[in-house]
Amino acid sequence: MTSTSRLNTTESEKIYGTEDILLSLCESVRKVLTTASRSQIRYSGMVQRIHKTCLKPDIGCFVLFDGGFSGLVVINFSSAAAMELYESYMLSMGMGKSDLAVNHTSDEVSNVMGELMNQIVGDFTGKVARELQTSITQNQPKMLVLTKQVILSVDTNLDQPEVRRVTFFTERNNIFYLELAMDRTEFIRIHDFDAEETSPEALFENASNANLAQQAGTAPNEDEGGSDADNLLKSLGM
């Protein structure tokens, strides 16, 4: 598998299916995290067909999307992968090593990883609009620190669900996983059109890194944090 999305490079193809959409999503993950951490993020050349999506330890995040097609994106980070990405990102923004959280269970780590996930989804939805000529909307990504596996049952209408998992590797070879569940669908090109690419650097400029640094440096109220986590777990039926 090359590191360039088939949605971007194979202009002669007329039909785009689940694997093409998955590959485009993988490229969004790779580009955004590579830009954020200033390190090389790569993904496996093999894709797994799975039957269900799960939030798994140590840090899990999910995003529901709807519109032109419906589905669910889940990313499960190991503690080592989350801390590597968090530290690299914050250091690249000019924060001192002594100012960083030292544990993946910190609210600061969850906030930063949630913001990165938001940037990934934003890049992906932009590609969908440009390259598939349709629109999808999504909820705000939520990060959960987990000690047990949580199986997600998506409250959305998937007539023919397809579920895939892709393994990602950080520069230090720490592992995290992307899972995509979506309805079986195909997009058929009926005429040529231009699909301009937005650079990840521009994406981060528009996201206002100063705001993120301020948010990450301010410890959230413990009661509020607990309430958000409780509400999210409750929405998952726990």
What's a quick, concise take on this entry?
This protein has 238 residues and is of the alpha+beta class. The protein is 39% helix and 24% strand. The longest helix is centred in the middle third of the chain and has 25 residues, at 107-131.
Descriptive report:
It is a single chain. The protein has 238 residues and is an alpha+beta fold. It has one domain: 3-Layer(aba) Sandwich (Chemotaxis protein chec), CATH 3.40.1550. It is built from seven helices and eleven strands. The chain has helices at residues 6-9, 18-37, 79-92, 107-131, 200-206, 209-217, 222-235, and strands spanning 15-16, 42-49, 54-55, 59-67, 71-77, 136-138, 142-145, 150-151, 161-169, 175-183, 187-188. The strands form three sheets. Strands 2, 4, 5, 6, 7, 9 and 10 form a seven-stranded antiparallel beta sheet that branches. Strands 1-11 form a two-stranded antiparallel ribbon. Helix 2 (18-37) packs across helix 4 and helix 4 runs antiparallel to helix 6. The model is unreliable at 1-5 (pLDDT under 50).
